[in-house]
Amino acid sequence: MKFMVVLVYVVMVLLVGYQSMRKTKTVSDYFLGGRNVGPWVSAFAYGTTYFSAVLFIGYAGKIGWGFGLSSLWIVVGNSILGTFLAWKFLARRTREMTIRLGALTMPQFLERRYQSVNLKILSALIIFVFLVPYSASVYMGLSYLFEEVFGIPFVYALLAMAALTACYLVMGGYTAVTLTDLIQGLVMIFGVVAMLFFVVKAPQVGSISAAFTKLHEIDPKLVHPIGPPGIVPLASLVVLTSLGPWGLPQMIQKFYAIKSEQAIKPAMVVSTSFALIITFGAYFTGSLGRLFFPDGMPQINGVPNPDVIIPGIISTALPEAFQVLILLLVLAASMSTLASLVLVASSSIGIDLLGTVAPEFAKKRGVAVMRLLCMLFIAFSVYIAIRPNVIVNLMSISWGTIAGAFLAPYLYGLFWPKVTKAGAWAGVLSGLFISVGISYFTGLHSSYIPLISSLAIVVPLAVVPLVSLITEKFPVWHMEKVFGATDAKSI
After folding, report:
1. Which ranges constitute the DSSP H helices of 151-296?
2. What is the spatial distance between Cα 169 and Cα 455, in angstroms, rounded to a whole number?
3. What is the mean pLDDT of residues 388-400?
4. Is the pLDDT of residue 357 over 60?
5. What is the pLDDT of residue 421?
6. Which of 221, 443, 447, 478 could link 474 by a cystine bridge, Cβ 3.0 to 4.6 Å?
7. Given its phi and psi angles, is residue 26 left (phi above 0), alpha (psi -120 to 50 degrees) or beta?
């Protein structure tokens, strides 16, 4: 039965890719769906890119185990800051300004906003370098899950997932990604609701009120507003997972592609609701881990491993038929994230770098080049995923590095005419240095990564305006081009 359910899902995804292929004529079609993506599809594309297998397989279990019910602050942060406020403040301005500047990607936006080709090149390299290990880690997580559930050897599962991603993404590009995201998002919602229902009903829990009582008996701090590790680690996680997406190219891409300003409000409501359901389901379930494993964190080969907390809860609390639904939930979440990562990383080479060194070739053969680069990126990710020791430490800082490098220059670039080229460069380099440099200095110790990544995101928000206030401003004509004549009057 498990194989049949997954097979039906795979066939459905491939059919969507094939149908989307006929609508893909230009680079804009391939990368942004021709900027004609509706509100519901955009909303689910944002949400399914936000939350991948990493959330369900290991992250929520580990955080819930350590912080208890205070991990629900991350739910609040992801839903309000990471989703609602992102759509409210960034979507309209991003769509409007990127259309005015003719920018399809984050590096193109930074180049045209700050008149710096070198900034575009550096941005493209950052995206490619740090999205490869991110993509590889998601492949690893999916392959691990398939090996546990189906008994398929890791390498075979890895190759199968890569082939599926390549097929529907290469055929249909962003249109295929967003249409499958809608399907995958619905699967995720049904899966999370089912998971919550059976977990709360399980004898180990009994009810929501009983869960509070039992966690209090284990450790009263597990039901406090701030869990045992303290406020600084918790705040770091909220900042990293909630403010960080404001600077991630694969998230911002959704604002470029939405078809109209009128579509933003419904997309904001749907996307926020989706985030609330998914994150509450994941973190609340993770916070109950100690009730299902009273003798301590579950182990693999004698070593405690948080990656098996939520899978262990699922195998204990859910009937087999619903376990298949959860399998599809994790598969759907991961495939959506993978497709967005591959598309954005490939664009950094195909649109940004190739468009710089060979613009005419990129214009004529852009779609074919993007399809080829998607396949090469997937192959590269698979190659690295087979060698997990190469990516474990790099993956842990990739989110913070990308968000730290881009958030401040992107955010100020949208709203503040007085930010300068030097200010933008200072923002990118300070975020990059804090995330990579300090992480390396501390020996890439996992306990420090959330705090370091949060600093990489927050510090450039102060660096950019400080440097901009003492460096050369852009001419008025450029600001009028960027903001429009009316908005530029504030210069």
Report:
1. 154-201, 208-218, 231-238, 249-257, 264-287, 289-292
2. 35
3. 60
4. yes
5. 96
6. 478
7. beta
Q: Does residue 294 surpass a pLDDT of 70?
A: yes
Locate 241 and state its tokens. 């997972």
- Count how many residues are written for the chain: 491
Q: Enter the DSSP assignment of 37.
A: B
Long-range contacts from 138-141, C-beta under 8 angstroms, 24+ separation: 138/52, 138/53, 138/54, 138/334, 138/337, 138/338, 138/341, 139/338, 139/381, 139/382, 139/385, 140/385, 140/388, 140/391, 141/52, 141/53, 141/54, 141/57, 141/58, 141/334
Partners of 37 in beta bridges: 258
Assess contact for 221 and 227: CB atoms under 8 A.
yes
Tell me, what's the pLDDT at 180? 67
Q: Report how far residue 17's alpha carbon sits from residue 412's, in angstroms, rounded to the nearest whole number.
A: 37
C-alpha distances (whole Å) from 406 to each of 44, 278, 301, 413, 435 are 23, 26, 40, 10, 12
The pLDDT assigned to 392 comes to 44
> Is residue 317 classed exposed, middle or buried when 0-12, 13-18 and 19+ CB atoms within 10 A define those classes?
buried
pTM (2 decimals)? Answer: 0.84
